[in-house]
Amino acid sequence: MHCPFCRHTDSRVIDSRTTDDGAAIRRRRQCPECNRRFTTLETSSLNVIKRSGVTEPFSRVKVLSGVRKACQGRPVTEDDLALLAQKVEEAIRSQGNAEIEAHEVGMAVLEPLRELDEVAFLRFASVYQAWESLEDFEGAIALLRAERDALGTGPDAHPEIGAQR
Description:
Blueprint: E1 12-19, E2 24-30, E3 37-43, E4 47-49, E5 55-57, H1 60-70, H2 78-93, E6 99-101, H3 102-116, H4 118-128, H5 134-151, H6 159-164
Parallel strand pairs: 4-6
Antiparallel strand pairs: 1-2, 2-3, 4-5
Helix pairs in contact: 1-2, 1-4, 2-3, 3-4
């Protein structure tokens, strides 16, 4: 690490702290040459390989943008979206790869989005997975219903509630 003041090629770490929920390390450094102090921020890089083969840095903002469109008009807050984007990034980083394909980012979005809002999940999945027919939607809805019923959380799980509607 070069000193930003005198360009000396060495520095001594005085203090280290994690920031951004452990995604980065803030280091306080001192130059042995000029004795001035400065701060560095270290983050691990995560690159996304697009379908075209182009590589770009992972962006939570892009995840948020795609998910926000799917959640338009749904009872989902910005905090919910930020938490979802954080979960997606954590899931991707936990794989331990420096590069990940764009397809895997989309796959990492599906489960947290499904937990957040099923309608938004269907919207996102229909675009992301390029559904072409009503059968694609029907199959996904049937799967959601079957899983919900198996957990006992769907409207059919408590028929006495459905009768009151």
